[in-house]
Design goal:
The protein has a single domain, classed as Double-stranded beta-helix (4-Layer Sandwich), CATH 3.60.130.10. It is of the alpha+beta class. The N terminus is likely disordered. The structure holds N-oxalylglycine (OGA) and manganese (II) ion.
Length: 304
């Protein structure tokens, strides 16, 4: 969508310009400075582009946490982040903004996920109502590595053979709560060896997106996953097959970060993963997450 002169002589929204990446998902949003107030038309244009492209990138931003929170709240109520612990005198927004970082200051980690690879996942799907979306803002980036990859789960579902669609469309899967997306055990959890005993929420393997009504694969994370009701070996074989299918290059777009990039993804129909990077380099991102709702499945098995 190119900017065009508007009838009324040009509202600020006419400067919003959406440029699809040409990959299976994602688009750049040009013409907005998120540190300034946004008019409702611009918010609508961004919201529509988000529904259409699943991932949006807004580059060259200069955002305080207040800006990040204010913009994120335009798309819904914010979710308290998974590492939040109340502390006296905490910074404003502390409950909503999580630092994703490898930086260590005086022995204290500044954020989560470190510098290693983070395997494909969606955020916080071990909760009964996973976040609708996450927004990740780059404050410091390594010169190489640390890229984030996104995969389109509508496309992955559509592209499955008909008999697999029918087979999986009434199944549900357990999403592991015991480990974070870098594989670290979360505090309060014991290691689990048998996926049938994995703690975490159950969601339909094929979920219906609450806004578009379209079905998408809803895989969450591979580690510790279990398809309810199947033998362990059938569950493992089915999940291996679905994961190999869903993360093929043709469903994927890669974000190479630059300072000032804000990337927002629809967590209900997108998976993401991160490449490792050199721990001698600093990487600091701030993330917000928008409250979601329980994922609903198809009412009847898919036929095509
Ligand atoms: C996240 C996440 C990846 C990254 O914040 O949920 O997976 O690139 N981050 O830091
Ligand atoms: Mn994540």
């Amino acid at each position: 969508m190119k900017p065009t002169a508007t009838m009324d002589g040009g509202s600020p929204a006419s400067e919003v310009w959406i440029q699809p990446t040409g990959a299976a998902l994602a688009a750049d949003v040009h013409g907005v400075d998120l540190s300034l107030p946004l008019d409702p038309e611009a918010v609508d244009a961004i919201g529509q582009a988000w529904t259409e492209h699943l991932v949006l990138r807004l580059s060259a931003q200069r955002l305080s946490d207040a800006d990040l929170v204010r913009f994120s709240q335009m798309f819904g109520e914010l979710d308290v982040h998974p590492q939040y612990r109340p502390s006296p005198g905490e910074l404003p927004y502390a409950r909503w903004v999580i630092s994703i970082s490898n930086i260590v200051v005086e022995g204290r980690k500044l954020g989560s996920l470190g510098y290693g690879e983070a395997a494909w996942h969606a955020d916080m799907t071990y909760n009964p109502a996973p976040p609708r979306a996450s927004l990740l803002y780059a404050i410091e980036c390594p010169p190489e590595g640390g890229s984030t990859w996104f995969a389109n789960m509508y496309a992955a579902f559509e592209d499955l053979p008909t008999e697999v669609k029918a087979q999986i469309s009434t199944l549900s899967c357990v999403h592991d709560a015991s480990r974070d997306s870098s594989g670290r055990l979360r505090s309060g959890y014991a290691p689990v060896d048998d996926p049938r005993a994995t703690p975490g929420a159950r969601h339909p393997l094929v979920s219906v997106h609450p806004v578009t009504g379209r079905p998408c694969l809803f895989l969450g994370r591979r580690a510790g996953a279990y398809v309810v009701g199947l033998t362990l070996s059938d569950s493992e074989a089915l999940l291996d097959r679905l994961w190999a299918h869903a993360t093929q290059d043709r469903f994927v777009w890669k974000q190479h970060w630059r300072v000032g990039d804000l990337v927002m993804w629809d967590n209900r129909c997108v998976l993401h993963r991160r490449d490792a990077f050199d721990n001698r380099q600093r990487r600091l991102m701030h993330r917000t997450q928008i409250v979601g709702e329980p994922m609903l499945g198809l009412e009847r098995p898919a036929r095509s």
